[in-house]
């Protein structure tokens, strides 16, 4: 007989791991942006949204497989070795780090809009 309590507990732990990964990602990205803003002597608010976009792009690139870069490497290998390699379909792995980067970017956009609201509405 299946013990559903164990399955529920496992799912709860899995959700907690993903949530913790999301929070840690947001904190690390905020820390990197804070340190960068101090080094560059820019305002945190001015830098945070653009850094968030960079984080999303970098995380998206490393979370995907297939696509242009994989196909170009595959085609070079086929040309040099003469061995036919199967083409990988483009696939994105939606993981807590990618979601955390997206959440950080959305939160930073909200922060920028709130900070500059008076500047745009005069």
Explain what this protein looks like in three dimensions:
By secondary structure, this protein is mostly helical. 79% of the residues lie in helices and 3% in strands. The protein has one domain. The chain has helices at residues 4-40, 44-63, 67-81, 96-115, 117-120, and strands at 64-65, 91-92. The chain has a two-stranded antiparallel sheet with strand order 1-2. It is flat, with a radius of gyration of 21 Å. The mean pLDDT is 84.
Question: Nutshell version of this structure?
Answer:
By secondary structure, the protein is mainly alpha-helical. Helices cover 79% and strands 3% of the residues. Strands 1-2 form a two-stranded antiparallel sheet.
Q: Keyphrases for this structure?
A:
single chain; transmembrane; transmembrane helix; two-stranded antiparallel sheet; 122 residues; mainly alpha; 3% strand
- Give the strand line-up of the largest sheet: 1-2
Largest sheet: 2 strands, antiparallel
Strand portion? under 5%
Q: Specify Rg, calculated over alpha carbons.
A: 21 Å
Span between termini: 68 Å
The number of helical segments is 5
In terms of per-residue confidence, which ranges show pLDDT below 50 for 5 or more consecutive residues?
A: none
Q: What oligomeric state is this? A: single chain
What string gives the helices and strands in order? HHEHEHH
Q: Give me the count of strands.
A: 2
Structural class: mainly alpha
Count of separate structural domains: 1
Helix proportion = over 70%
Shape: flat
**Average residue pLDDT:** 84
């Amino acid at each position: 007989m299946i013990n559903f309590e164990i399955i529920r507990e496992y799912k709860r732990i899995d959700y907690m791991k993903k949530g913790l990964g999301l929070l840690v990602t947001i904190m690390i990205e905020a820390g990197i942006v804070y340190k960068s803003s101090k080094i560059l002597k820019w305002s945190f608010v001015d830098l945070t949204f653009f850094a968030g976009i960079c984080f999303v792009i970098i995380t998206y690139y490393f979370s995907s497989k297939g696509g242009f870069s994989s196909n170009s490497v595959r085609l070079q290998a086929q040309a040099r070795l003469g061995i036919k390699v199967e083409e990988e379909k483009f696939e994105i792995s939606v993981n807590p780090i990618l979601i955390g980067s997206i959440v950080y970017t959305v939160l930073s956009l909200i922060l920028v809009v709130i900070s500059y609201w008076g500047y745009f509405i005069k």
